[in-house]
């Protein structure tokens, strides 16, 4: 190999290259410094407010303040639903850590049921880890004391005071007041973020209908925390707005009288002021202890209620209904007068059996032929023949029109959710259910309140009140007044202007006289009115459960209990100046005159004379099965949540005691209305 050639350096080129690289590096550094300065300017000036807010949020935590739920009182101011202080255990999963590190030790201090743990795990998986989750509601005083000693061992586990809902007369007003229960996933969707702090929500009754008013508005406290997230001091707060208090038109004494008058019989009844529509008493029997549901009912207790053949959870007034029987005859008679088909003095000759022209099948009367019968006698003696012929002459289209005018086939508008509309027989209604045509015999059945009829007790009491008050179809309502704060006056709840059912005073007077004659000699309710120091008007009714076979009739009292007819009664008193109207339905009662009417008399006496009924000895064979009851709620500590009102002390707890520990589970809030139920058409069985 030859000698290596020597390469000479180009000093000028290297210098130019160095200067170029230096310039590029300087420009890059300058651009980076400008960008960094611009970024600092953006953070410190443009986005100062945003980051200052975030910094403040790291220092200050918002703690929700749940408002005190509004009280519910009867017309005399006695508390029907109130709040008592209690404690619950809340866990923040992010701070507490894995459950296997703290849950076994906590279970030795606080009794936790499998349902409590399962519900907590479900909520923990469905929510963020920094949100507190309720592990157990209603911690006992002994558990509170034990936990306070070892609280330092459980970071993220807190004992939170709150107001627990209590119903001093739970079973007596179960289907009126209803109950609150624990918030579930569906409730949270409806409440949104603002309601996430709530633990309970109204599920049934007035608690559900007036939920928004009773709930109030959630407030919050601003709590300053240290670097470890522990609270140091309060730096601000937005107070919670307490829920509104409700004063009902219900009279607690009359409510108790109505329950006592039924004895152990199942059924429903509504007592109302016909002048205003204020509901004075409303029972659906049997009832149930609403305190069972507040913090979650146990599986055993819920199963006991569901297996009860009397269906205590079913609200017969709102969700129920059935054929009204003869109790609608006064209104059908009024329709005959207002339509021009009849005059009060017009008479028909009752032979005991009504025949549609061209047909051999007959519709029979209750006690054979009644002879010449006018409107007043047709109501007093409940002559079916009169109404068979009237309904046939009226035709189903006109019949349907007048019955709807009287409020049937539609909701009454009472302030309870889920009200059943009922059914008024019509060809249109039948076409929606079947492809069969409408038959003339179905019109005849409708004339005595049988066939496809479904009417609620609320509809019956409303229609009867319109007869009593001169023709106004008032709206039944339970809440008479409300106040939005303890220091504010009670304000009446405005009611809509009632429609008129008739403008013919003489026609209405004839119907009233017929109902008064029902309570006199020869009337189907004469036994009920015996010895009464006041006048009364009414109408008995019987809705059959089974049809006759051929020409054979059944004595309702000779039938098995479950096949006995429904006993009904509607009426008002005093007849010359009505202040109370009642509608009663007794399941499997037999006859309205012998079963439902005596109950009405006791209700009238309780309201007008202050005479409370004596308990009725019942047949042990039909005694209701025993039902579970909640343990009494005992005040444990003063709550930190502001209370809307001062709790009156006149209402003592009357809830009987039960076992101390009770695992909890959630249950459906409402039963399904029987709006599609279709009773079998009548075959002309006597209706009283």
Automatic annotation (TrEMBL):
Active site, per annotation: 326 (acyl-ester intermediate)
Keyword line: Carboxypeptidase, Cell inner membrane, Cell membrane, Cell shape, Cell wall biogenesis/degradation, Hydrolase, Membrane, Peptidoglycan synthesis, Protease, Transmembrane, Transmembrane helix
Pathway per the UniProt entry: Cell wall biogenesis; peptidoglycan biosynthesis
Enzyme kind, highest EC tier: hydrolase
Transmembrane segments: 20-41
Compositionally biased intervals (Low complexity): 654-669
Subcellular location per the Swiss-Prot or TrEMBL entry: Cell inner membrane; Cell membrane; Membrane
Catalytic activity: Preferential cleavage: (Ac)2-L-Lys-D-Ala-|-D-Ala. Also transpeptidation of peptidyl-alanyl moieties that are N-acyl substituents of D-alanine
Domain Penicillin-binding protein dimerisation stretches: 66-234
EC number: 3.4.16.4
Membrane topology reported for the UniProt record: Single-pass membrane protein
Annotated region (Disordered), positions in chain: 654-688
Pfam families (UniProt xref): PBP_dimer, Transpeptidase
Ranges for domain Penicillin-binding protein transpeptidase: 267-604
Biased composition regions of type Pro residues, renumbered to the chain: 678-688
Protein purpose: Catalyzes cross-linking of the peptidoglycan cell wall.
NCBIfam families: pbp2_mrdA
PANTHER family: PEPTIDOGLYCAN D,D-TRANSPEPTIDASE, PEPTIDOGLYCAN D,D-TRANSPEPTIDASE MRDA
Family in the record: Belongs to the transpeptidase family. MrdA subfamily.
Name of the protein in question: Peptidoglycan D,D-transpeptidase MrdA
Species per Swiss-Prot/TrEMBL record: Lysobacter panacisoli
Gene: mrdA
């Amino acid at each position: 190999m030859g000698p290596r050639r020597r390469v000479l350096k180009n000093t000028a080129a290297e210098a130019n290259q160095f200067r170029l690289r230096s310039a590029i590096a300087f420009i890059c550094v300058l651009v980076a410094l400008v960008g960094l300065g611009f970024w600092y300017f953006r953070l410190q000036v443009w986005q100062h407010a945003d980051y200052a807010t975030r910094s403040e949020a790291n220092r200050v935590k918002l703690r929700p303040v749940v408002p005190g739920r509004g009280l519910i009182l009867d017309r005399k101011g006695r508390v029907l639903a109130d709040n008592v202080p209690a404690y619950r255990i809340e866990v923040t999963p992010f701070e507490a850590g894995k459950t296997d590190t703290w849950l076994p030790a906590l279970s030795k201090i606080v009794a936790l049921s499998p349902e409590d743990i399962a519900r907590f795990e479900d909520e923990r998986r469905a929510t963020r880890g920094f949100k507190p989750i309720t592990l157990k509601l209603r911690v006992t005083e002994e558990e509170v004391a034990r936990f306070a000693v070892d609280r330092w061992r459980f970071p993220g586990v807190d004992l939170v005071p709150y107001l627990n809902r209590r119903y001093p007369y739970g079973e007596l007003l179960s289907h009126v007041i209803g109950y609150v229960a624990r918030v579930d996933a569906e409730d949270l969707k409806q409440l949104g973020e603002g309601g996430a702090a709530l633990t309970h929500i109204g599920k049934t009754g007035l608690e559900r209908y007036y939920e928004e008013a009773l709930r109030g508005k959630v407030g919050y406290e601003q709590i300053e925390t240290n670097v470890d997230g522990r609270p140091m001091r309060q730096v601000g707060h937005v107070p919670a707005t307490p829920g509104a208090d409700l004063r009902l038109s219900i009279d607690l004494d009359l409510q108790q009288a109505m329950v006592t008058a039924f004895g152990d019989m199942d059924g429903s009844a509504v007592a109302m002021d016909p002048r205003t529509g204020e509901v004075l008493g409303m029972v659906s029997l049997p009832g149930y202890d609403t305190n069972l549901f507040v913090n979650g009912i146990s599986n055993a207790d819920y199963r006991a209620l569901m297996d009860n053949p009397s269906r205590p959870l079913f609200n017969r007034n709102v969700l129920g209904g059935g054929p009204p029987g003869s109790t609608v005859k006064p209104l059908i008679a009024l329709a005959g007068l207002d339509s021009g088909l009849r005059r009060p003095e017009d008479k028909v000759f009752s032979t005991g059996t009504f025949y549609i022209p061209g047909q051999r099948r007959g519709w029979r009367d209750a006690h054979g032929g009644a002879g010449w019968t006018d409107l007043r006698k047709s109501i007093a003696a409940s002559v079916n023949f009169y109404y068979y012929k009237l309904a046939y002459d009226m035709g189903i289209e006109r019949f349907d029109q007048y019955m709807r005018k009287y409020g049937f086939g539609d909701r009454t508008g009472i302030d309870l959710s889920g009200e059943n509309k009922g059914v008024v027989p019509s060809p249109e209604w039948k076409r929606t259910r079947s492809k069969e045509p409408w038959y003339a015999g179905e019109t005849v059945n409708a004339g005595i309140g049988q066939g496809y009829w479904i009417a609620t007790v609320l509809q019956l009491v409303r229609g009867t009140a319109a007869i009593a008050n001169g023709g106004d179809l008032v709206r039944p309502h339970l809440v008479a007044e409300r106040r939005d704060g303890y220091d504010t006056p009670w304000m009446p709840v405005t009611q809509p202007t009632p429609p008129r059912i008739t403008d013919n005073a003489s026609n209405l007077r004839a119907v009233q006289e017929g109902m008064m004659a029902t309570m006199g000699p020869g009337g189907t309710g004469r036994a009920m009115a015996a010895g009464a120091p006041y006048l009364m008007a009414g109408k008995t009714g019987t809705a059959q459960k089974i049809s006759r076979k051929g020409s054979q009739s059944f004595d309702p009292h000779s039938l098995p209990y479950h096949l006995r007819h429904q006993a009904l009664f509607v009426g008002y008193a005093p007849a010359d100046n009505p202040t109370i109207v009642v509608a009663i339905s007794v399941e499997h009662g037999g006859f309205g005159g012998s079963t439902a009417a005596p109950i009405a008399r006791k209700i009238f006496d309780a309201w007008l004379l202050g005479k409370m009924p004596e308990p009725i000895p019942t047949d042990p064979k039909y005694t209701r099965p025993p039902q579970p009851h909640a343990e009494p709620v005992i005040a444990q500590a003063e709550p930190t949540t502001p209370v809307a009102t001062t709790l009156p002390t006149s209402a003592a707890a009357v809830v009987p005691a039960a076992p101390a520990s009770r695992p909890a589970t959630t249950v459906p809030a409402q039963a399904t209305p029987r709006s599609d139920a279709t009773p079998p058409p009548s075959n002309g069985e006597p209706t009283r």
